[in-house]
Write a structure and sequence with these properties.
Blueprint (H helix, E strand, L loop, with lengths): L9 H69 L22
């Protein structure tokens, strides 16, 4: 008896090669994405004190603005409405020139 070895089909090699290339590409994308995430996270942590200070300054400014708005509203409410004001008629004693 003669053993005849069957050749592996060319398509099996092509599909296998494509799968290996796809897996390598996907693992590189995942690695680069993870590395970039870690790098960005570290950069943000390094800048965090500046961000915290900015956030605190903005909160303080918002409180000041709120106080100024409240004072402004109180002042506007304290000023009498010019349309509702009644002016007393001048008398001769107050301004004799106007009544002559």
């Amino acid at each position: 008896e003669i053993n005849i070895k069957k050749k592996t089909s060319l398509w099996v090699w092509i599909i296998g090669g494509c799968l290996i290339i796809t897996l390598l590409t996907m693992s590189m994308i995942i690695f680069v994405g993870y590395w970039g995430y870690k790098k960005a996270k570290n950069e943000l942590q390094n800048q965090n004190p500046n961000i915290e200070k900015f956030k605190n300054d903005m909160e303080e400014a918002a409180k000041e603005i709120e106080e100024w708005e409240k004072k402004s509203k109180e002042l506007r409410n304290a000023i009498p409405d010019s349309e509702n004001l009644t002016y007393p008629s001048p008398s001769k004693e107050d301004n004799p020139i106007l009544l002559n």
